[in-house]
Amino acid sequence: MADKNKKIQVSVIIPIYNSEKYLKTCLESVLNQTLENIEVICIDDGSTDGSVSILREYQKRDDRIKAVTLEHRNAGAARNAGIDIAKGEYLSFLDSDDLFEKDMLEDAYHFATDYHSDVVIWRSDSFDQEGHFRSMEWTVREKKVCFNKDTCFRSFKNNRFKAIMGWAWDKLFLRSFVLDNHLRFQEIDSSNDLLFVYTSLLLAKKIYISDKVLTHYRDDNAASVSHRREKTWNCFYLAIRSLKKNLIDLGLYELYERDYLDYAVNFCLWHLRTVNEATRKKIITSFKERWWEELGFDTMTSGEYFNENEYLDFVGIIFGKELNPYQKITYKLRGFLISLNENGFIYTYKRTLYHLGLGEDNDIRRTQNR
């Protein structure tokens, strides 16, 4: 239990929607944190299963839990509702099906206070239904950031938006920093944390990045995520377009244009590759009609992109341009060298095995749309 005479150090905000299967495990993982002076703000987004009953049960057991029920909208709206009532010095946004190291909040809080950080970031791994854990080294690109010291977005190396994933559950945010900068989650059905996360990184004067694995992502809902994205197929575009608008409004677009466009290609390409054919056709049509120009892909040549291969891949899908055999060989070799330079040997080795049909993919199953 928290000491009521002490300030709340962290407000943990958990959006919940039909989460009864894993909710108890998640709540236990949060309530058993070594950092005790926390509040746990559970925002039920109109669940129709037993989630609300579980929340009531835990609320009786631990007065640190604050449960709020809303009409069903989306996780972005739920997180914003949590921000509005939070009292903690820092904000943590967790998902209701994941697990957390017992000292996650304590470590993150001390990193934040010791280094006076606006944002703290740490590593994650994933686990499946059989309890097998595997690394997610791509969530923090070690060749692009500095660990365990003060840093900022500008100090990240090229492809800055690819250095850190655009989700919120492996980060801690100074609440006054969030409020002063009017940071909000987009209230859309998927990709709703991208704008909040990357805008916070752009504005943060001090960012601390830990090499410790503190969050364990439950990797068993790929099918439901994919199905939801096919129903809300344009949310990724709304998110990436809003990020461009924020960069322009902050006077930072010219500085980060190359980083933004390279990331936008990567983000859009991933969506195109992970939806069904009918949805892919709708996305391709939208790019041809207006999205291509709106997002600015026509403003740089292929050679100006950090990852020219991804751009050529993207162009090929949207406009149907085929490479000749020589270009394909050169393309694959260049892609290998780019990955080696950006991601290191281990990651590139795993990706190569995957493409040869000799291993599992650790990147395509990314979860930017939870």
**Succession of helices and strands:** EHEHEHEEHEEEEHHEHHHHHHH
Low-confidence stretches: 361-370
CATH domain topology of the largest domain: Spore Coat Polysaccharide Biosynthesis Protein SpsA, Chain A
Major sheet: size, sense and barrel closure? 10 strands, mixed
CATH architecture level-2 label of the largest domain: Alpha-Beta Complex
Mean pLDDT, to the nearest integer, reads: 87
Name the CATH homologous superfamily of the largest domain. Spore Coat Polysaccharide Biosynthesis Protein SpsA, Chain A
User: Which descriptor suits the 3D outline?
Assistant: globular
Structure annotation, total helices: 13
- Bin the helical content: 40-55%
Would you count the extended β strands for me? 10
Structural class by secondary-structure content:
alpha/beta
- Top-tier CATH class of the largest domain: Alpha Beta
Radius of gyration of CA atoms, rounded to a whole number: 21 Å
End-to-end distance, in Å?
A: 30 Å
For this entry, give a set of tags.
Spore Coat Polysaccharide Biosynthesis Protein SpsA, Chain A; 10-stranded mixed sheet; 45% helix; 370 residues; 10 strands; 13 helices; alpha/beta
